[in-house]
Amino acid sequence: MVLTIHFVDYLRHEEFDRRSSMRLSSLLRAAGRSLLPVNSHVTRSHTCGELRLADAGSEVTLLGWLSFRRLNRFIVIRDSYGSIQATIREDDERAKSLLSHLPYESIVRVRGRVRDRGEQHRNGKMATGDVEIDVSSLEVVNEARRDMPLLPDARAHEQTRLTYRYIDLRSPQLQSNLRLRSSVIHAARRFLVEEKGFVDVETPTLFRRTPGGAAEFIVPTRTPAKGLAYSLPQSPQQFKQLLMVGGIDRYFQVARCYRDEGSKLDRQPEFTQLDIEVSFTTQTALLDLLEQVLLAAWPEHLNGVKPCAPFARLSFADAMRDYGVDKPDLRIPWKIEEVQSRTFERLRGDSKDSDWSLKCIVARGSASAVNKARVREWCRLVEMNYQSTSFAVLTAATKKKDGRWFNFVRDEEIEREFEMGEDDAVILAWGAPSKVQYTLGQLRGMVGEEVGLRRREEFRPLWVVDFPLFERDEEGSLVSCHHPFTAPVPEDEWRIEKEEGLEEIRAQHFDLVLNGVELGGGSIRIHNGPMQRRVLEILGEETGEMTHLLEALESGAPPHGGFAFGVDRLISILAGRGDTSYGIRDVIAFPKTKEGRDLMVDTPIEPSREELDRYGYEIAGKVEKKE
């Protein structure tokens, strides 16, 4: 598939150059490096983004992509560090002839002298806009194809960008994002090793299934273990606990993890965690450490909006009561409130349920973001979940044809009760209390998104603590709220032994939420073998699958706890400067689609007959591949 596009214009390249050069310079400073090392062990003398007036008169050799030409004399070449203008001499017919047919994105080598462009010709939109290269030699190193499917950072369909990812990676945006990712991981690693004495340990990716977790990918084995299979771990959870038992009391790892789930805006089937585990710790001590890790890794160019420690803390119960979700975006100022009056009693209808509830959100200043079309879309999205209930969004734009919101109460009474101004919206939800909380929680985020509150350049971290240890799934079965290795608070341990009030047990589990996005979760672990066995039995899990861990916990396991930062999510929020709609695919070098496909290499693919025979597998049903 070839996408027909127009070549981007010169001014656009100048703007990309300015933004990317500023960001890249900041990232390099944050990593404690200068531009000099990138020019060692290579055939260039400088990058395309580093030359300034101080370099005037210097002889240089540059290599990069041809990104613009005019009159076959004026060209812009670009590399990963910026762009610079080069000028072909008037009498150099050979160079002008080369340029006349040379496709954009061809690799060229330019040799020449740096010269001042002069006051009249300076370009303030380019980082190198004070100078240009007087070209003495132009060489085509590698000519690009003439039917390029896209140009870096050109507006193209995501399918095209993913198919030709190796071209898309040249864009200033992705260059900046991947260098940001590298810088953040490097800073976190340096802090953990050099300042906190942690040990970086790699753990296997060929493992066995983990009970009570997400669906896992399997890896079949051949003879002599034919018919058996490994599982790819969804996290190094068990290994890091075993390392604690083995005396590696301060462990971390930048870990590759896998889940056989559909890809979403903030989720991929394979993802990266900054995994941390500590022996002889407490929840309070762990939270303090994790705050230090995040702030130590914080990028320099965002220091102006860097959060301060200690981060806010909120119990799970309070989060659900005030915000309707366990990961609220604190940039949205509205909370869920009780409706105290009996004004809306008619909404109860024939319901005799004593638990019937009516609550609201008064969204000040949001009326302009609400119209009937958006309310219909919100309704569609909310109703996709079984926890939803009836709701109404009240603004001037959502009144019925007769000009009223409800036929049983006058609008004036509603406006007076909620002190509504012209710019305000009131969101009402009624029904079962848990469904009311869920519905209002979702609508709070949707309205906040439309108003622009979730795109603000601001970072509001929050610890959510005191989660329940167990919860019910859609079928009513008891499942772990986090995972089955999480310890209960000491005051509730007796409930596990007696199996009383299991849903009332509080866990030593905590989530770090940033701008309404869960950056990661952690907990104090169960370090007692009998208690771990009991939890697995309560959940209906086969304890035989966990013999290795149970025996380890009975072999003098120290108390321990840990946490995992979601690296992809963290980098996407930082790259978006707080905008939570910024997708993680733009901070991953080679991401997959929401169907889990890699369009660039066209995978997954059907296994060959030889491979099936090797592992003793047959495919029972085949899904036709989408083109």
General description of the model:
Helices cover 27% and strands 21% of the residues. The chain contains 16 helices and 21 strands. The strands form 5 sheets. Strands 6-9-10-21-20-19-16-11 form an 8-stranded mixed sheet, sandwiched between helices. A hairpin with a 5-residue loop joins strand 17 and strand 18. The longest helix is centred in the N-terminal third of the chain and has 24 residues. It starts with 9 loop residues before the first helix and ends in a 12-residue tail after the last helix. The N terminus is likely disordered.
Shape verdict: globular
User: What proportion of the residues is helical, as a percent range?
Assistant: 25-40%
Query: For the CA atoms, what is the radius of gyration?
Result: 29 Å
Low-confidence stretches: 1-17, 28-35
Largest sheet: 8 strands, mixed
In what order do the strands lie side by side in the largest sheet? 6-9-10-21-20-19-16-11
Number of helices: 16
The strand count comes to: 21
Termini separation: 11 Å
Relative strand content: 15-25%
Structural class: alpha+beta
Mean pLDDT level: 90
Question: Main traits of this protein?
Answer:
627 residues, alpha+beta, eight-stranded mixed β-sheet, five-stranded mixed β-barrel, globular, disordered N terminus
